Amino acid sequence: MQDPTQYDQSNVFNLSGATALGMITGLYGTNDLGGTRAPDIIGRFGIDQAWGLAQISVVAHNNHAGYYGITEDTGHPGDKWGFAVQGALSIKNIPTGPG
């Protein structure tokens, strides 16, 4: 478990303040991050021996946006969970020998 508050505070934009000129110059609206609601889940399991290596890793993040407008009365979009899974397999001693 990792607290995302310190390093993940951008890239949730409220496009109601966006303009065509802003889109061209990279100003996509106002940052609308609603804060942190859950810790990031990060895990890895691996085994590395003479025969080879096998591992799997996973990460999950809760993306929580702020309100549609300025106040709580305007409502807000629902939370979305994003995740990634990765696996690896490396066989070092194959039957044909080294090389």
Q: Care to describe what's here?
A:
With 99 residues, this protein is mainly beta. It is 6% helix and 37% strand. A three-stranded antiparallel sheet has the order 3-4-5, with no helix packed on it. The protein has a two-stranded antiparallel ribbon with strand order 1-2. The mean pLDDT is 77.
Percentage of helical residues?
under 10%
- How are strands sequenced across the largest beta sheet? 3-4-5
Q: Structural class, from helix and strand content?
A: mainly beta
Biggest sheet record: 3 strands, antiparallel
Strand content: 35-45%
Which residues sit in consecutive blocks of at least 5 with pLDDT less than 50? none
Helical run tally: 1
Shape: elongated
N→C terminal distance: 41 Å
Number of strands: 5
Let me know the average pLDDT. Answer: 77
- What is the N-to-C order of secondary-structure elements (H for helix, E for strand)? EHEEEE
Gyration radius over CA: 21 Å
Helix/strand layout:
Elements: E1 13-14, H1 20-25, E2 30-31, E3 41-49, E4 52-63, E5 80-91
Antiparallel strand pairs: 1-2, 3-4, 4-5
Give a concise summary.
By secondary structure, this protein is mainly β. The chain has one helix at 20-25, and strands at 13-14, 30-31, 41-49, 52-63, 80-91.
